[in-house]
Design brief:
With 94 residues, the chain is of the alpha+beta class. It contains 4 helices and 4 strands. The protein has a 4-stranded antiparallel β-sheet with strand order 1-2-3-4, with helices on one face.
């Protein structure tokens, strides 16, 4: 298993997985299609806010972790002053 920063080549797997779990997040079943049509995820991978686990043998994306935060570069201060980090983890591992 390889854990790496996601890039634009990983986005089709992300869209597919997002569609698969749409019901859990109470979104329409075409959530991945909606994200794809808006180029969703492009900025996220560009800002290094998404990592993926990739199977070495098959090259299959096994899951993703997306996170987002707005802070001044000092995470300790950011969290102590009430800042937060949003994180979403989605995996296709049963």
């Amino acid at each position: 298993m390889l854990i790496k920063w996601a890039n634009e080549n990983d986005l089709p797997a992300w869209y597919s997985l997002v569609t698969e779990v749409s019901g859990i997040f109470q979104h329409p079943s075409d959530m991945g299609t909606k994200l794809r049509s808006r180029n969703g995820g492009t900025g996220t991978v560009g800002r290094h806010e998404m990592i993926t686990a990739v199977d070495y043998m098959s090259g299959t994306n096994m899951g993703f972790i997306c996170f987002s935060s707005a802070y001044d570069g000092n995470m300790d201060t950011h969290l102590r002053t009430g800042g937060s980090i949003r994180c979403t983890c989605i995996s296709n591992v049963g």
